[in-house]
Amino acid sequence: MMNNKNNIYEATEQNLDKAAETIRNGGLVAFPTDTVYGLGANVYNADAVAGIFKAKERPLFDPLISHIAEIDFLPEYAQTDSRVMALAKHFWPGPLTFVLKRKDNNPSIDLACAGLGSLAVRMPNHPVALSLIKKSGVPIVAPSANRFKTVSPTTAQHVYDSLGNRVDMILDGGACKIGVETTIIDLTGKNITILRAGGLAKEELEDFLGEKVYVNDTSSSHPKAPGQLLKHYAPKLPLRINVAETDVKEDEFFIAFGKVSRKADLNLSESSDLKEAAAHLFAYLREAEKHDEYKGIAMSPIPMTGLGLAINDRIKRASYKE
Ligand code: TXA
Ligand code: MG
Prior knowledge:
alpha/beta, 2 domains, binds magnesium ion, binds threonylcarbamoyladenylate, Rossmann fold, DHBP synthase
């Protein structure tokens, strides 16, 4: 089939206006954020929101994150308190998503919230995303702009490769800086619990709050964040993780971390920098899976500190065998 990628647009002022109009009219726009590319729709337009699930082939029980551009909007949308507002003021815009109790005056967002009594909301730290939300004048719901269960996109090209012309417009804002999805925290109870490890380290949250932050058991088959399935982020080649460099097989594509003495096909970060590794992770998995002359992918162990929590979470799911 001939295809000239005519739905990828440079993020100019004019194209942002066109994208905002597309959102308002119920279309789907993929856009860059600080973490990964999102597939956006007007949260108040149930048909448009349904279109997201269809384009991604995502089950309807899996709720979406709302993206907003102003903190002041938050109390109109969700139940807040001083802890929530303090976290928002400190960490937004940034790679942190809140799960909050919904206000019951908004049945139009039922589909986006998958009928739950809570909603997920965040403010992305990216000028293109913020401008698009402001110009649209509505919160934009956006899951990662990839087909369900596949690796999340960190470039406009990745979005195109995964969703093609199922999207009305793909705004190109270059590669995402953080490269893994947001950290999701549950703020509906007394304790704060991480539902999904992500681009904001647990340590940074604890430093700010001065209290322990809990981590939800994500190995469950009924996760509290409904999207946290055991198999997710799957590359096309089987992935083995925590592999010492001496155990890498001849027919495996080797993704290293840190200094290694054996030749690596790719290295997430030669200087063992976990932020750099997170930024490379999804692009390298996509690169590796293209090499079907190999039988599989082997990856070095990644430490469990800072963004290592998010990286280990994603690769564990990517390596899960059914
Ligand atoms: O970095 C990100 O968060 C990206 C960018 C595009 O913002 N978005 C993203 O969305 O990763 P998605 O749909 O791929 O993942 C959203 C996760 C899912 O695991 C979903 O189950 C969870 O958030 N979630 C959404 N609403 C929830 C709620 N009310 N309670 C618990 N989990 C929720
Ligand atoms: Mg996703």
